[in-house]
Write a structure and sequence with these properties.
Elements lengths: L8 H8 L11 E4 L3 E7 L5 E6 L12 E2 L5 E7 L6 E7 L5 E4 L6 E2 L7 E2 L11 H7 L10 E6 H4 L15 H15 L3 E5 L2 E2 L12 E5 L6 H13 L3 E6 L3 E3 L19 H4 E2 L4 E3 L5 H17 L4 E4 L2 H5 L21 H17 L4 E4 L21 E3 L1 H11 L3 H4 L4 H4 L10 E5 L11 H4 L5 H16 L3 E5 L24 H19 L13 E5 L7 E6 L7 E7 L5 E8 L4 E8 L12 E4 L7 H4 L9 E2 L5 E3 L10 E7 L4 E6 L3
Parallel strand pairs: 10-11, 10-22, 11-14, 14-18, 18-19, 19-20, 20-21, 21-22, 28-29
Antiparallel strand pairs: 1-2, 2-5, 3-6, 4-5, 6-7, 6-9, 8-9, 12-13, 15-17, 16-17, 23-24, 24-25, 25-32, 26-31, 27-28, 27-30, 27-32
Helix pairs in contact: 4-5, 14-15
């Protein structure tokens, strides 16, 4: 093979400064006309060789040469071809000899096997140029973002074992099925758990060993790219859960990669999460930060993802995270903040969002760290969005209460309005809230039977009206009863029951209303987009507020009743006079008379292909013509407003009206 060095001195210079953003093009395994060139960073190693199918796994056949002072080793192997397995055989300074998987591998063996696999990315074909062009001209803060959080292996399964992956859909099968479902349900984005290669199914993909490899559980890298391309063709954005906070201690992985701490902090007081049994990346080392930034850029720029949801951000920001006194090291100022992680976030967010302006960087940050979504120039971290964990905790604590006690906890639902624009938030009801004996969303609700469904419809409507983008974990849109488990598919059989079908259709209508009305998403930057009608009706546990549109032509009035008391002629205050058209009415049981327990949805919010998707007929679910449900204000003070309308507000009922302020 050509003896010209593949990893050059210029590559080493960029790598040493943490700015080699296409590092994945130089480290790892790369096919050439003669075979394959292998490069690996192992500065502490005494010797390195590459072993694999191409040399009978003999460590003496293909020794690697240390080509740069930064510690990169290189070997060119004639005859190595796509699909062959390999590892790096490392001799440590203390004489230990062991094998490691390639940190930059694009593909890996299916667990429980652990070798890396030579991949040929030149076979990937993209057809989504128009989608990407449009995306990069769109500011996601001003766009509708309704996320369906999903775990491929447990969304749907084949009723047979498929090559050892327990019946999971392949990337291609999943793409076709989930695209149809997201379109029908009105979701704008899909967020995927557990895509980067990982060894243990029970970790859900949050203990990663392959930061550049889509997991082999569902197919090849080419299959993964096909899935992304197909979803883009259907207008659905893709967000990947990305885990730069920690990595597992598996012997073939990153832990003590070259015989010493390399990717992790050397001092266990910084370099280990005892609670999780994992290692912590060394954010003070430019090469490690470059590894992570190259991983993020690989998924965004090479695999065309539309966003990264960054896992466990708080664990990176705080040196004392899940550590007792004496078990952590303060920063140079004596504080608990990890200043190196702060700089890492500022840098990577600047780079990714600067190069890809329509891409979302989303922080799962569970504390009150200031400025997570503010510009680094203003002292912020530079994320696009932050998960609103405070809202989530207050919302769930309130919703779990017996209605009798909700009046004394009224502020749990109003407090988040005081800070909802301090960051660019995503309201989340994620997988973490429906596992580990926390119950499913439906089973969290008080009451029996229909009361649970009515509570959940009211809660989801309140979530729709609250400022912030939206995220709902799979199964909660139709009332999954059991907690989520990665070991089985969702309980789709529940859709044979009318109440579950009603909830599913109602969530779909909420999504479609959200996408149709800019008042619900384009105003997420400021308090001028939301205004209380009555925030203080604790005795009745009723909340009413308006979401204002920028042009005043498509405003929304929300009224949500969180008790089993019905009001046949409920009167709500209105800021402006005129006609108020009912878009949604979530009717709960106990109302009595016609339609008790049914939901009512404007025909304009039904699925585009509603006859095909529900042969039984959507008419049975209570669609109506908007022209027949128009309420005209009268000049009558109510809730401190000069005008009001009266309408029947059901028990656990939620009503949404559209009106024009201009």
């Amino acid at each position: 093979m050509d003896q010209k060095q593949f990893f050059t001195g210029y590559d080493a210079h960029l790598f040493g400064h943490g700015t080699h953003y296409e590092l994945y093009e130089k480290l790892g395994a790369h096919l050439t006309e003669e075979g394959c060139v292998f490069d690996v960073w192992a500065p502490h190693a005494e010797a390195v060789s590459v072993v694999g199918d191409f040399n009978g796994w003999d460590p003496d056949k293909d020794p690697m040469t240390k080509i740069e002072e930064i510690g990169v080793w290189e070997a060119k192997v004639p005859g190595a071809v796509e699909g062959q397995l390999y590892k790096f055989f490392i001799t440590a300074k203390d004489g230990r000899r062991f094998e490691k998987a390639d940190p930059f591998a694009r593909s890996a063996e299916l667990r429980p096997k652990t070798a890396s696999r030579i991949a040929d990315e030149s076979k990937i074909r993209w057809t989504d140029a128009a989608y990407l062009k449009k995306r990069n001209k769109t500011d996601p803060v001003d766009a509708p973002v309704s996320i369906y959080e999903c775990h491929i292996a447990s969304w749907k399964r084949h009723p047979f074992v498929n090559e050892g992956v327990e019946g999971s859909y392949t990337y291609r099968e999943f793409a076709v099925s989930i695209a149809e479902y997201c379109r029908e349900m009105g979701y704008t984005h899909l967020e995927l758990l557990g895509i980067e290669e990982y060894p243990f199914d029970g970790s859900w993909g949050y203990q990663v060993t392959g930061y550049f490899a889509p997991t082999a559980r569902y197919g090849t890298p080419e299959d993964f790219a096909w899935m992304i391309d197909y979803l883009h063709s259907q207008g659905i954005g893709i967000i990947l859960d990305w885990v730069p906070a920690h990595f597992p201690k598996d012997s073939y992985g990153l832990s003590e990669f070259d015989g010493e701490a390399l990717y992790e902090y050397g001092d266990p007081r910084k370099g280990e999460h005892k609670e999780w049994g994992t290692k912590v990346f060394d954010y003070g080392r430019p090469e490690v930060c470059n590894f992570l930034s190259a991983s993020a850029l690989y998924w965004v720029e090479k695999m065309h993802l539309d966003g990264l949801r960054v896992d466990a951000v708080a664990s990176m920001l705080y040196l004392n995270y899940a550590r007792k006194d004496g078990e952590w090291i303060a920063n140079k100022y004596g504080g608990k903040e990890n200043l190196e992680a702060v700089e890492f976030f500022r840098h990577i967010n600047n780079v990714i969002r600067g190069r890809n302006p329509g891409v979302m960087m989303i922080a799962e940050e569970s504390t009150a760290w200031p400025g997570v979504t503010h510009s680094p120039d203003d002292g912020g971290l530079g994320f696009t969005f932050k998960w609103n964990m405070g809202w989530m905790h207050d919302f769930l604590e309130y919703m779990k209460l017996d209605p009798y006690f909700r009046g004394n906890n009224h502020n749990k639902m109003t407090f988040s309005f005081t800070y909802c624009f301090s960051e660019n938030y995503v309201l989340v009801l994620s997988h973490d809230e429906v596992v580990h004996l926390k119950c499913s969303m439906l089973e969290k609700m008080p009451g029996l039977g229909g009361d649970k469904f009515a509570n959940l419809r009211a809660g989801y409507t309140y979530m729709l009206g609250h400022p912030g983008k939206k995220l709902l974990f799979m199964g909660q849109e139709f009332g999954q009863r059991r907690e989520w488990s990665e070991a089985r598919e969702l309980d789709w059989f529940l859709l044979a029951e009318p109440e579950h079908r009603q909830l599913q259709s109602y969530v779909g209508a909420l999504n479609r209303l959200y996408r149709k009305c800019p008042a619900l998403y384009a105003g997420d930057r400021g308090y001028q987009s939301v205004e209380w009608v009555n925030a203080d009706d604790a005795n009745r546990s009723i909340y009413s507020f308006v979401r204002w549109s920028a042009d005043g032509k498509d405003d929304l009035l929300f009224v949500v009743n969180f008790t089993p008391v019905a009001y046949p002629d409920y009167r709500v205050g209105c800021f402006v006079r005129g006609r108020y058209t009912l878009a949604l009415l979530s009717e709960g049981p106990g109302m009595g008379g016609e339609g008790g327990g049914r939901i009512y949805i404007s025909r304009s919010l039904r699925p585009r292909d509603w006859q095909k998707t529900d042969p039984a007929g959507w008419e049975e679910k209570g669609f109506w013509d908007p022209e027949k449900t128009v309420f005209t204000t009268r000049k009558s003070e109510c809730d401190g407003k000069p005008y009001s309308i009266g309408f029947p507000l059901p028990a656990y009922g939620a009503a949404v009206f559209r009106f024009r302020a201009k």
